[in-house]
Amino acid sequence: MNTRSRISILLAALWWGSLTGLGFVVVPMLFIQLPSPAAAGAMAAKLFTAQTWLSVACAMLLLLVENKKEAPALSPSAQAAMKFIVAGLLLAVLVEFGVAPRIVNARADGGNLRLWHGLGSAMYLAQWLAAGWTLWCLSRMPREGDATPG
């Protein structure tokens, strides 16, 4: 396995792992441990913003690493990975700049918090799936210089 392949897998693992840790461990623990849902929500919002920037960085670096100009065409696995990288990147940005401000506004003015929170959660889950599928595709992809089973 070459260095480029290892970097791609590490980036995808960081992206998926950070989404997993934050969304399925840290944020639920905030709501259990902090004294009020408002305090937990405020902290979760800050953590989700940090996660967005980590997701953007991982996705952009993955796109740079996986975009091989010397390769005439991407393999089907690489094409699938690229699609999921772009989808995950778009979902991260949409949640941060489209949904998160509406959640804040819904809390402040009594708007439809349940709707926006549900939409944000669904988009976070979709981003988690995109990052996971990216990791799956990149870890399964035959790489140049690898011995073929025979």
- Helical fraction equals over 70%
Number of strands: 0
- The geometry reads as elongated
In terms of structural class, how would the helical and strand content be classed? Answer: mainly alpha
**Low-pLDDT sequence parts:** 146-150
Q: What string gives the helices and strands in order?
A: HHHH
Number of domains: 1
Give the distance, in angstroms, between the N- and C-terminal Cα atoms.
17 Å
The overall pLDDT average reads 88
Strand content: under 5%
Radius of gyration: 18 Å
Q: Number of helical runs? A: 4
For the largest beta-sheet, the strand count, sense and barrel status come to: none
Report on this model:
With 150 residues, the chain is mostly helical. The protein has one domain (3-68, 77-140). Helix content is 82%, strand content 0%. It has 4 helices and no strands. The chain has helices at 3-33, 37-66, 76-109, 113-140. α1 packs antiparallel against α4, α2 runs antiparallel to α3 (76-109) and α3 runs antiparallel to α4. It is elongated. The two termini are 17 Å apart. The model is unreliable at 146-150 (pLDDT under 50).
